[in-house]
Batch of 3 targets.
Target 1
Amino acid sequence: MIRIEKVENKDEKTKVTLEIMNALPEWFSPPEDIERKSMIHREYPFFAVYDDEKAIGFAVIKRHNHYTAEIYNFGILREYHRNGIGHRLMENCTEYCKKHGYRFLTVKTLDESAEYEPYNGTRAFYKKEGFYPLEVFTCVWDEENPCLFLVKVLK
């Protein structure tokens, strides 16, 4: 049975982060970045998706100010893609942000100009979830990895 939980335990946040990010090297790398993010996630609102007791996905929300929060990291194991799980997880994130009074939810992802196939589905997912592209930045990561900045208006 698939369930989504808001996780408070910092060790569980780290465990889930490491399991999921290490299982998705096309989207998350290098290993030292995964380790660093697993520590950062401990301090942010964190939602995990479980299939019975197995962690299969997570979302991390970073609060920027009174108006804006960001999907800081989001990942679902590949074998669970296209089953509506990502949508349900995003709904949880959106409801959390609305409940806490945020007006905007943002996300950063790799721009299509980088021509890296795994992110085609990522961009399509965010657009389907109501995110709109605002701008592309080459100074966030680097010129070979242009950052597409998207926003969703919360009502």
Target 2
Amino acid sequence: MSTQAQTTNLTETTLTPDLTYARLASDAQLERAAHALKLNGFNVLVAENAADAKAKLAEVIPAGAEVFTSSSTTFIQLGLFAEIDREGGRYDSVRVKLGKMDPKTQNREMQKLGATPDYIVGSVHAVTETGSLLIASATGSQLAPYAASAAHVVWIVGTQKIVPNMDDAFNRLEQYTFPLEDQRAQKAYGVHSSISKVLIYNKEFVPGRATLIFVKENLGF
């Protein structure tokens, strides 16, 4: 059975996360990944730490822009939800708009609003040294705007997520990311997570659309 087939069958886990996937990438690995990503149409920035990453994010997204924050442990650690998703703040927050809508009567409008923002910000689960991204989701809500429907995409990614190739990316997802996310979901919501939908992002064809900010710190899963 292929790695991808195995992944789609995972629904819960008692696995201990493989902590080898928590190690920060070397400068050489980071350089290879950044170079390959640029060749594949991604903008790449490198931040030395969390504060630098937040400053670079502010440079990438202009004040007043419409921004949707995707669910992200990285963003929780950086405190970016509180900064972006507040009324009267620097940005036009989609989540603020969604908070004023009624899911019972406006669910379809809410789905469209979340799917087509000017900017969506979040993170990924693995980046290969060959310039590809792997993103998994239980619901898939962030995958459409990441892939095509958002005008711009910005990811903030700790360099521990850099792996040699796509096989290693799936191994990282299954053996490290998923066990941690499953534990988080049980604590937060009382339910197991699942790797229900997976996006493999090999290339961006729209110039300037997709930006990845690497951070030389262990952020997120």
Target 3
Amino acid sequence: MTDNEQTQDAALNELWDQLAKVRAGMLGLDCAGGHVQPMTHHVDRENRAIWFIASADSTLVETLGEGATGHFTLQTPDQDYYACLRGTVRPSASEEKLDEIWSTVASAFFEEGRDDWKVRLLKMPLREVECWSTRKSRLLFGLELLRAATEPNATPDLGEHHVLDLSAAA
């Protein structure tokens, strides 16, 4: 395995770890032409996908059709990790997956709970991810910026940036 492959694997593992920690992000569709929406995601590491439970009467579902390119963005509370995930969002009829990811929180959004006619399951297999991370404390991050602003030819070390192509592996 090359150094680049190891770096890409480490970046992908960090992505899955961060997705497991952070419970919500923002999801939008290219075809919707509107705004992104806050959504809780469910990680499917094995299939390199994320799942969502949405309402049939949401703008997101109404404009989805049989599938559309989606963008899901994520930011950690400590502001040390950011990611934009891209893939095709499609409706799914998997009752098993819906049962697996259903929760009390999801139930709160549907009058009839799990059996509400509005419940829609969406799957987003990932094609590409762009992510940024820094392991520096806020103080060290600020010092890097200050050094770059005051020293000629200084470039701040603001962390790592990766673009991960998952389309071949999907």
